[in-house]
Amino acid sequence: MILCGEFIIFLVVYITSCKIIEEDRDFNRKKLALFIFFSSLIMSYLIYNINIPMYDKFRGMLFILFAVFISSVDIWTFYIYDIVSVVSTIFFIILNIPCGATDVSASISGAVFCGILSWAMKIVSNGIGDGDIGIFAMCGAFIGGYGSIIIIPESFMLASLIYVVVYILGYREKQLAFSPFILGATFAKFIGSDIIEIYMETIKYIL
């Protein structure tokens, strides 16, 4: 199952990156595809060994495939393809159909509320990019329910921690893509980690 999913994402990466290379001739689509293939394979294997229900393992591995692909492209190009975030959002909603109407409605509400709230943040503060709105919606659909909104503050907390590390290391002018923090916070919530608690403990340690 893992290898089948990896093969599918490899094809998606290769086809999508054909469009990227038209926009940036220096972009190495083969290098990106290989990186995504092996990194998502390792992360999928780790999820497979987590003690959670099999269906959640399946959903988690699929999320990893999307997350690694989106993050890798964003890190390399600082661009998020809307078609990827829209398709993945719909995909995670449909994936809940076998679980019943309650899970489907929770997935839809998660996508809608995360999408609207992140869009409002974009309008008010311009603190995130347009592509990040779609990623928030996708993550809301994956986690489901109103509780998925916590992903938004947790992603900013995770980003601030990493920025502190980057600043200390001397890369003060380095620009970082934001989607990996959104996806990282979502994955942490999925496996039961509390970014807020980690953030507060780190701040206490620094102070």
From TrEMBL:
Which first-to-last residue range defines the signal peptide? none
Q: Where is the Prepilin type IV endopeptidase peptidase domain?
A: 61-164
Gene3D superfamilies documented for this protein: 1.20.120.1220
Q: Which InterPro entries match?
A: Prepilin_IV_endopep_pep
User: Which positions, given as ranges, span the membrane?
Assistant: 32-50, 87-120, 155-171
Q: What keywords would UniProt list here?
A: Membrane, Transmembrane, Transmembrane helix
Protein's name in the database: Prepilin type IV endopeptidase peptidase domain-containing protein
Native species: Peptacetobacter hominis
**Source taxonomy lineage?**
Bacteria, Bacillati, Bacillota, Clostridia, Peptostreptococcales
